[in-house]
Hints:
43% of the residues lie in helices and 16% in strands. The chain is an alpha/beta fold. A seven-stranded parallel sheet has the order 3-2-1-4-5-6-7, sandwiched between helices.
Amino acid sequence: MLEGKVALVTGASRGIGAAIAGSLAGEGAAVIVNYHKSEERAGEVVREIQEKGGKALPLRADVTDESAVEQMVRAASEAFGPVDILVNNALPDYKFDPVSRKDFASIGWGDYQHQLGGLKGAFHCSQAVVPGMAEKGEGRIINILTNLINNPVVAYHDYTTAKSAFLGFSRNLALELGPSGITVNMIAGGLIDGTDASAPTTDEVRQIVAGSTPLRRLGIPEDMGHAVLMFASPWAGFVTGQYITCDGGLVMP
Length: 253
């Protein structure tokens, strides 16, 4: 389905990002596994892809650093060709801990600014790959959000606010890039089990979320990887500016 395509997945050394990288590679895309600190884990993701016959390359870059992103995109192009699919998944370190989270009385503006770093990274990566996509007359940008935007089960103020800003960013980008054949879509995950961020989530909250979900379970990273394939596929060529949830039906916008 994606043979001949080049995909860049940010924050792909673990969790959701690693699953997305694996899904894209499984459909034939050559995948850039971006990481910031987890070199060993990024290498493991690449090895797993290669062992299955796929193509992958680990590239280190702090996506909030414009020059580092430009260097990464150049290296990706030299290795596989211009990026066709960009998945903006990287986010600043965050823990979904309903017990020790900062409430509104204790949170600081710096916390909001820190989480907005995820949007800054998407901004840099999008600017770096759009010229190549526009030259080819096609491209896919897929941004990872959260269903907390619509259903704040727990008030993670800084995280949810930053992801809400991501929604506006994505829709503006979809409008402007459409004439160049570039689509921009969003996938909002629910509580995803088996990630570092969700590890502190209490069993009580897990049970509440799973019990309120029509499919009666929490998501896993592979669910997000499969959702990305929908927007990355040739069949989504006339879909842009769209925001869908991948949470088993918990949120129905």
